[in-house]
C-alpha cells in the first residue's frame, strides 16, 4: 500500500522562506509531484522529482531523497498569494498512471 | 493549454437520486481520473480509465460507476446518492503512459440532502 504524510498546517510571514516536508512509504516509486491548491479551486502542478536531488523553478524548489522516502517543497520570498494548500503525491510501482495524494498542508502567509 | 471542464460547479441532490458528473477534455489524453476530496483525507481515487470503454477501480469505488464511451468524456455515476457522498469531485487527465503530470478540472461540489 501507499502512505504519505505531510503536516496539516503551517504559518509563515511574507518575504520569508518555508519548507513543507513530505514522507512516503510506497510499493515501488515512479516519481513525486507537488501541487498547489487555492481554496475552492483545482490543484495545479508545481514540480516533479524522480531522481534524488533538488529541482529549482523560480521561487519554488523541490527536493527528493528516495532512500529516505522524503521530499520537501521550499518556497522563497513568500507572497500573500502563496497562501494555499500544498499537496504531495507519489506515483508508486505497477501502473504508471495512478497517483496517491497526501492530505495536503495548508499554508497561511501573514503580512 | 490543457482544458478540462466539468459539467457543474455546484450540485444539490436528494438521497436516492441518480447523479451524473461529466468531465470533458480537449487534449486527446488517454488517461482520465475521478477523485473525491474531503477535509483531512486529501484526494482519493475513485475510478480511472486509460482508454475508451476501459475502466479500473481506484481506492474507493464503492457506490460509484463510470462510463467512457468517447475519448474526451469520462462520466462518474452515483446510482443512488447518499449523504456520505457529499464531497468535492475532481476530474483529471494525463497523456499516455508517461511521467507527465495530471491536469485537473475545476471540480464539482456535490451536496446530498
Helices and strands of chain B, in order, run as EEEEEEEEEEE
List the chains of the largest interface with their residue counts.
A-B, 25 and 26 residues
User: Whole-number radius of gyration of chain B?
Assistant: 13 Å
> Into which percentage range does the β-strand content of chain B fall?
over 45%
String of helices and strands of chain A: EEEEEEEEEEE
Tell me the number of strands of chain A. Answer: 11
Question: Which structural class is indicated by helix and strand composition of chain B?
Answer: mainly beta
Which class of secondary structure composition applies to the elements of chain A? mainly beta
Low-confidence parts of chain B lasting 5 or more residues at pLDDT below 50?
Answer: none
Number of helical stretches of at least 4 residues of chain A: 0
Q: Compute the gyration radius of chain A: what is it?
A: 13 Å
The amount of helix of chain A comes to: under 10%
Mean pLDDT of chain A comes to 92
Q: What would the principal axes of the Cα set say about the shape of chain B?
A: globular
Oligomer: heterodimer
The major sheet of chain B is characterized as: 7 strands, mixed
Biggest sheet details of chain A? 6 strands, mixed
Give the number of DSSP strands of chain B. Answer: 11
Low-confidence stretches of chain A: none
Amino acid at each position: 500500500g501507499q502512505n504519505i504524510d505531510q503536516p496539516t498546517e503551517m504559518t509563515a510571514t511574507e518575504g520569508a522562506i518555508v519548507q513543507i516536508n513530505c514522507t512516503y512509504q510506497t510499493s515501488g516509486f515512479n516519481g513525486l509531484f507537488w501541487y498547489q491548491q487555492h481554496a475552492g479551486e483545482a490543484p495545479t502542478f508545481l514540480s516533479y522529482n524522480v531522481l534524488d536531488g533538488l529541482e529549482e523553478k523560480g521561487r519554488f524548489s523541490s527536493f527528493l531523497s528516495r532512500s529516505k522516502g522524503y521530499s520537501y517543497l521550499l518556497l522563497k520570498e513568500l507572497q500573500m498569494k502563496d497562501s494555499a494548500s500544498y499537496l504531495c503525491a507519489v506515483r508508486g510501482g505497477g501502473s504508471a498512471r495512478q497517483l496517491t495524494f497526501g492530505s495536503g498542508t495548508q499554508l497561511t502567509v501573514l503580512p | 493549454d490543457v482544458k478540462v471542464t466539468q459539467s457543474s460547479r455546484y450540485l444539490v441532490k436528494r438521497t436516492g437520486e441518480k447523479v451524473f458528473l461529466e468531465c470533458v477534455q480537449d487534449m486527446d489524453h488517454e488517461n482520465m481520473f475521478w477523485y473525491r476530496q474531503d477535509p483531512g483525507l486529501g484526494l482519493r481515487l475513485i475510478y480511472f480509465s486509460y482508454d475508451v470503454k476501459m475502466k479500473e477501480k481506484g481506492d474507493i469505488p464503492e457506490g460509484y460507476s463510470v462510463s467512457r464511451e468517447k475519448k474526451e468524456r469520462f462520466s462518474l455515476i452515483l446510482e443512488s446518492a447518499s449523504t456520505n457522498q457529499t464531497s468535492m469531485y475532481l476530474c483529471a487527465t494525463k497523456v499516455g503512459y508517461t511521467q507527465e503530470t495530471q491536469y485537473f478540472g475545476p471540480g464539482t461540489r456535490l451536496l446530498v440532502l
